[in-house]
Write a structure and sequence with these properties.
There is one protein chain. It is built from four helices and six strands. It has about 150 residues and is of the alpha+beta class. It has one domain: Winged helix-like DNA-binding domain superfamily/Winged helix DNA-binding domain (Arc Repressor Mutant, subunit A). The longest helix is centred in the middle third of the chain and has 13 residues. The protein starts with 12 loop residues before the first helix and ends in a 6-residue tail after the last strand. The relative contact order is 0.16. About 10% of the residues have low confidence. The chain binds zinc ion (2 copies). The site of one zinc ion has 5 residues, from loops.
Length: about 150
């Protein structure tokens, strides 16, 4: 399944370098390319989505995979697990003054909607869910809504 990635404004190479430096990572071209790619995506991307999108820039899938894991381990990406065995990643906004990615993922934590038919995952960036303290919920790590997307209805 090809990612239906909308084109949004990407963070600059300079902003990507700043993030890598802040996380004490070396500024490699694959890491910068992935940060830029995910910052302009309005949906989480799997490893194969990222590999496919970066292939044209000359990165092989194993390089893309390694960079994704390193960036997620360093806290620069959010790992998303929606229970379908596919690990997805999304850009984690960190409070930098001139962040062009702010409009995409305003909040670090937001619910996701997954389509049961096509598997498309949508970020519900402007949706927040409050769970009353009376429930014995310790820590929520993922809020997931399932259903049929507009394309599949
Ligand atoms: Zn669908
Ligand atoms: Zn999201």
């Amino acid at each position: 399944m090809a990612a239906r990635t909308k084109i949004r404004e990407s963070i600059s190479v300079e902003a990507a370098r700043e993030r890598l430096k802040a996380a004490s990572l070396r500024c490699t071209s694959s890491r910068i390319a992935i940060l830029q790619l995910l910052s302009r995506s309005d949906q989480p991307l799997s490893h194969s989505d990222v590999a496919e999108l970066l292939r044209d820039s000359g990165f092989d899938p194993s390089t893309a995979y390694r960079a994704l894991v390193e960036l997620a381990d360093a806290g620069l990406l959010i790992r998303l697990d929606i229970g379908d065995q596919i690990r997805r990643y999304e850009f984690k906004p960190v409070p930098l003054k001139s962040s062009a990615a702010k409009q995409v993922h305003d909040d670090q934590e937001h619910p996701h909607f997954v389509c049961l038919d096509c598997g498309h995952v949508t970020c519900l960036s402007d949706v927040s869910i409050q769970i009353p303290k009376s429930h014995s919920v310790g820590q929520v790590t993922e809020i997931l809504l399932r259903g049929h997307c507009a394309n599949c209805l």
